[in-house]
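During data preparation, a discrete fold description was generated, and the record follows.
___
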Amino acid sequence: MTAFENVMLGVDQVFYTADREERRQIASYYLTVVGLGDSMHKKPAELSQGMRQRVGIARAFALKPKMLLLDEPFGMLDSLTRYELQQVLIELWRKNKITALMVTHDVDEALFLSDRIVCMTDGPEAEVGDILDVHFPRPRERKTVMEHPDYYKLREHLITFLEVHAHKKTRVPVEKDETRATHPSPPPPLPPDRLPAPVRQSEPAESPLNPA
């Protein structure tokens, strides 16, 4: 299946009332927007990891959802490709104005992409921590965002939250009468008369390769 056929698979299901040519134009448009205009008829083996991610982004926006859910979409990519796709995501959002909910562990990515950051504590029983509004003007460019007077203030706040709150472990209280030793108690020491005799160091044996 080519990149174009991959996007068409979703477009055909969502826009089944549209004529065939219109659906093809939708798929072609979003693949071109994400930078795959010349590669849309390539198969997965011919695409890099970053290009495959672009196909996924194109498919998601081509379906025109009311909300877009993104779970660390750029986590496995190298820094340069990740930066490029973040910019692609911002451009697509600007054109479509779709509400997006994105999970990320990257502080700088959160600051660059979002309008609001919801911090979560760590662990299976994670809770909502701080909620920060991000007021960097749009459209956004990375250099402009990093030069904003609030950028490093917000960044420091997020890093502090992660260091102080995110890795705290909740200790379950244990009743005194239910307390048990984690490891067995060591055996009592032997009396002096039962201690093993010290080992005497013997003379080194002669090597059979060097007889006396």
Confidence is low (pLDDT under 50) at residues 170-174, 176-185, 201-212.
